[in-house]
Design goal:
This protein is an alpha+beta fold and 271 residues long. The chain is 32% helix and 14% strand. The protein is built from eight helices and nine strands. It has helices spanning 53-66, 137-146, 166-176, 183-187, 194-205, 214-228, 238-242, 250-264; strands spanning 2-3, 9-10, 21-29, 38-47, 89-90, 93-94, 115-119, 128-130, 133-134. The strands form three sheets. The protein has a five-stranded mixed beta sheet. Strand 8 (128-130) and strand 9 (133-134) form a beta hairpin. Helix 2 packs parallel to helix 5, helix 5 packs antiparallel against helix 6 and helix 5 packs across helix 8 (250-264). The longest helix is centred in the last third of the chain and has 15 residues, at 214-228. The chain starts with a strand and ends in a 7-residue tail after the last helix. The relative contact order is 0.12. Bound molecules: iron/sulfur cluster and FE2/S2 (inorganic) cluster. Residues 76-79, 81-86, 101, 103, 179 line the site of FE2/S2 (inorganic) cluster.
Length: 271
């Protein structure tokens, strides 16, 4: 049924309606962390170009459930590009062909008849939990190692009592937009977490409130990412190119600068 301009209903004009897309999906299925995985092929039909990628997976899962099959496990929460929970490799690219989150990727980025490969993040510090869902708690442990500030309790300070230069607050804000999705790690041939760690070090280290822990923060967060098994940065730049929030490589320069300064000042990681 279509709705005319005057609000009256008229019969469907099928000839003017766009048909949805028919797609072949090749999806990584893996029952658990130690199970052997494999790519499994599914067909989905009549997919609206306006659907998000996750809604397209919902359509597949509804059909699998109705057929009594196991639905494909994948992570998601906000579906608004905010929480960082979603993220899969789509045709070998972290979050797919657009620089956005998987939940904000729309099916109009694909063509009718396409075959789409969908895999979990590939990095040993992100072990597969099931299918497309991976365990990203390594990021939480990096944050725990130094991603905090000390805040004196008491009455709220006077607004504007701590002036911050605009260029610093802008750069800190840009770094703070990192949502911890892990695309940078998945895209990097070294599985390096430098962009993520650098975003956290930058957003706290540029603000006056972040100064007391500045040296300890950087040495401890870098030591933790090494303990988690992330690789080293060799300035390839795939991380930034895949980052849905456009975190720049400049943050990595800032991290390296801070790290050298902290080590020269005698800061050493906690064992
Ligand atoms: S730096 Fe970008 S890609 Fe990496 S975790 Fe943060 S938002 Fe995701
Ligand atoms: S589901 Fe929250 S960023 Fe995609």
């Amino acid at each position: 049924m279509t709705i005319t301009q005057g609000g009256a209903h008229s019969a469907v004009d099928h000839s003017s309606q766009k048909r949805g897309m028919n797609l072949t999906l090749r999806i990584w299925r893996q029952n658990g962390p130690t199970a052997k995985g494999k790519m499994v092929t599914y067909k989905v039909s009549d997919i609206s170009p306006d659907m998000s990628f996750l809604e397209m997976l919902d359509v597949l899962n509804e059909r699998l459930i109705l057929d009594g099959d196991d639905p494909v496990a994948f992570d998601h929460d906000c579906r608004e590009g905010i929480c960082g929970m979603c993220g899969v490799m789509i045709n070998g690219q972290a979050h797919g062909p657009q620089q956005t989150t998987t939940c904000q990727l729309h099916m109009r980025s694909f063509k009718d008849g396409d075959t789409i490969d969908i895999e979990p993040w590939r990095a040993s510090p992100f072990p597969v939990v099931k299918d497309l869902a991976v365990d990203r708690r390594a990021f939480d442990r990096i944050i725990q190692a130094g991603g905090y500030i000390s805040v004196p309790t008491g009455t709220a300070p006077e607004a504007h009592s701590t002036p911050v230069p605009k260029k610093d607050s802008d750069a800190a804000f840009d770094a703070a937009t990192c949502i911890g999705c892990g695309a940078c790690v998945a895209a990097c041939p070294n599985a390096s977490s430098m962009l993520f760690t650098a975003a956290k070090v930058t957003h706290l280290g540029l603000m006056p409130q972040g100064q007391p822990e500045r040296n300890d923060r950087v040495v401890n967060m870098v030591a933790q990412q090494d303990r988690e098994g992330f690789g080293g940065c060799t300035n390839i730049g795939e991380c930034s190119a895949s980052c849905p929030k456009g975190i720049s490589m400049e943050t990595i320069s800032r991290l390296n600068h801070d790290l050298l300064g902290a080590l020269r000042a005698g800061a050493r990681p906690k064992s």
